[in-house]
Design brief:
single chain; mainly alpha; 5 helices; 71% helix
């Protein structure tokens, strides 16, 4: 049940944000919101797949959920309701960069392990 926790929490937090949004964020920026949720879900899923492939225990809580939790709390408490669009765009950019960073790290680690160049047909010299 551990791998099930992070995706469920992601969808609970995003649903709470949609339903309690003071500026109706889903009506203003539907594509950005769906892109943010999709990128976070893709990151969580990719980390779970890599953990399964490497026979390691997956983390109970994905670290991307912490900034999302903080933004949802700030918006719902009215602290940052006027900055909701800016927070959404910032969160989307951060999630996208984090997902790209994770992908680059995985490719580097795999290419180092298999002693190959990524995206190339030739192998490194064995000298």
């Amino acid at each position: 049940m551990v791998p099930f926790f992070s995706p469920c929490l992601l969808f609970i937090l995003s649903t709470v944000w949609i339903l309690r949004s003071p500026s109706d964020i889903l009506e203003k920026h539907p594509r950005v919101f769906y892109f943010m949720v999709g990128t976070a879900f893709a990151n969580i899923t990719c980390q779970l797949i890599v953990c399964q492939m490497s026979s390691t225990r997956c983390p109970t809580l994905n670290w991307l959920l912490l900034p999302l939790f903080l933004v949802v709390i700030a918006v719902n408490l009215g602290v940052a309701s006027h900055l909701e669009s800016v927070l959404l765009c910032t969160l989307t950019a951060a999630f996208t960069l984090a997902h790209i960073h994770y992908g680059v790290r995985v490719v580097k680690q795999l290419s180092s392990h298999f002693q190959i160049y990524p995206f190339s047909l030739r192998k490194p010299n064995s000298d």
